[in-house]
Amino acid sequence: MYPSDIAFTDRVKAIQSRKGSRDLYAAMEQKGGWQTDITPELEVYLTNQRSFYLATSNRHGQPYIQHRGGPPGFLHIIDRHTLAFADFKGNRQYISQGNLSENPRAFIFIMDYLHKTRIKIWGSARVIEDQPERLANLMPPRDQYRALPEQIIEFTVKAWDRNCPQHIPLRVDAEDVEQLLKEKQTRIEDLEKQLCQLKKDRP
User: Fold this and answer.
1) pLDDT recorded at residue 143
2) Domain range annotation of the chain
3) What is the CATH number of domain 35-171?
4) What distance in Å separates the CA atoms of residue 159 and residue 178, rounded to the nearest whole number?
5) What is the pTM of this model?
């Protein structure tokens, strides 16, 4: 058994063989393959993200994807196999919660457009509604992000992998652009002050 077997079923492997990629992935599996622990590298990556997608499906196999966002750090690493985040109040459809109540299998997909990277995480998830103190501890500071907490979603990591950057468009968050413009403006002001001082010091 390999960690990637969570996604590479017998049917998937058969298609890989037919299309010529099975040997490549078999070699990857024999060298260790996908990770099952949240490594320090992945922890840094996750805590820097502002959003991700959570995929679930109901008992009939009908899939559903829901976006989750917040300030960097809103996705918490609890231990080397567990993630958790405060589930904010939204449109109150509760599709993800309903799906998880009958099928705990879940998937997290993270796209970082600025650095052109994407991470895929397979596992299981559960909704926790009766731990208000813990929920409060998972909330971002009020001065960083205003949201109403409703419950906790805890995700157990079974396997994860990274995709190649091919076809990922480069996009920059508005906050990053604003910070870069502020730094540029500060640099311009500093240079203008230096120029004025040089003119004054000129004999």
Assistant:
1) 82
2) 1-33, 35-171, 172-203
3) 2.30.110.10
4) 36
5) 0.84
